[in-house]
Write a structure and sequence with these properties.
Chain A is an alpha/beta fold. Chain A is built from 5 helices and 7 strands. The chains are: A alpha/beta, B mainly alpha.
């Protein structure tokens, strides 16, 4: 190797660490952007898919006689929707849940999560409408943690055998409903 | 001395300040509480990306801490409590990812990269040596032994220094 060739080669060697840094750094920045963009929830693996609904038995919210337990979900395809009167995204989702209820498409069961006082949930439902077949009061996250919930709203599609088949993080949007949830519900109904 | 004592106190205070466990959550039995702390340190607050539930003020973290204590009081072992959480949130809930096939790159990756670097450098040095038969300077020129004149001058300078 001549001296000139070698020094060119030497210089190239010094660039390699920089290239490695750029690749690793670029990857990290991309991942960080994902996290701050709110997409990080997607990386949470949904371990409960295709497993039975965790057993729970919640008391009713004020003004209702019956609470909500895991037993109530057997024998039908249903949606379990976790909400709270304090949750802004739940408010955004709420009109669409009312439409599902009005068109009688599928029963929706509610988990009223982390209400600070016992009147907040009932007041919210009286004001905006109540799309839920049954509602359980979950002030200390017992059911929420059992469902592996990280934020509200979250919804689960449960089949006739009480097995969780789908998890929706964030509000159910009309697009998501048409694309994924409604076709899946129809498919699960044919399964039985 | 006073500075030293102060420094030690500050150093001891830091980890205590980071705790988010509130007084009303603490179990009456100190042994059970100690176990709850041990479990709490391993569990990730699932809404805060990279904090243990013991260090987080998030409401969900608080509820998880209480659930940990409920289960310990009910007679679960530490492992059972951790397994309960992993069952619901997946490995994500563990601050230390478990060693298995899907996390192999994570655990082995840095060591492999370091090893490749060491081998690469070793190869680089060996090649330079074998090409010229002697150690090279950074500029790429072969190092020359000192001439007699240079040696004399160096000795004189060194003597001067003493």
């Amino acid at each position: 190797m001549s001296g000139q060739q070698e020094s060119a080669m030497n210089r190239f060697v010094y660039i390699i660490p920089l290239l490695v840094l750029l690749v690793v750094g670029g990857f990290s920045v991309a991942q960080l952007a994902n996290v701050s963009g709110g997409k990080s929830v997607d990386v949470l693996p949904s371990v409960l898919i295709n497993r039975e609904v965790p057993p729970f038995d919640l008391p009713p919210i004020k003004g209702r006689e019956r609470g909500f337990s895991s037993e109530d979900l057997l024998g039908q395809v249903s949606i379990v929707n976790l909400f709270g009167s304090w949750c802004v995204a739940c408010m955004a989702e709420h009109p669409f849940l009312m439409r599902i209820k009005e068109q009688n498409l599928v029963p929706i069961y509610g988990l009223d999560w982390r209400e600070k006082d016992r009147d907040a949930g009932p007041r919210w439902l009286a004001k905006h409408g109540d799309p839920y077949t049954l509602i359980g009061d979950d002030p200390d996250s017992k059911a929420a943690i059992a469902f592996g919930v990280t934020g509200a709203p979250e919804s689960f599609i449960v089949d006739q055998k009480g097995v969780i088949r789908y998890k929706q993080i964030g509000p159910i949007t009309p697009e998501k409903w048409e694309e994924t949830l409604w076709p899946l519900i129809q498919k699960l109904r044919e399964e039985s | 001395m006073r500075t030293l004592v102060f420094a030690v106190l500050i150093a001891l205070a830091a980890p205590i300040a980071a705790e988010a466990v509130e007084p009303d959550e603490i179990l009456a039995d100190p042994a059970l509480e100690a176990r709850a702390r041990e479990v709490g340190k391993q569990l990730r607050c699932v809404v805060c990306q990279n904090q243990a539930i013991d260090d987080s003020n998030a409401e969900l973290a608080r509820d998880m801490r209480i659930l940990v204590r409920d289960r310990i009081t009910a007679g679960d072992t530490n492992e059972e409590v951790v397994a309960y959480m992993v069952d619901r949130y997946g490995d994500f809930v563990l601050l230390d990812p478990p060693f298995k096939t899907s996390t192999l790159v994570l655990w082995i990756g840095p060591a492999v990269i370091a090893m490749v670097g060491v081998l690469w450098m070793a190869a680089l040095f060996r090649r330079r040596k074998s090409e010229t038969g002697e150690i090279q300077t950074v500029a790429g020129k072969a190092a020359q032994p000192l001439s007699d004149e240079e040696r004399k001058r160096l000795d004189a300078l060194l003597k001067e220094d003493q």
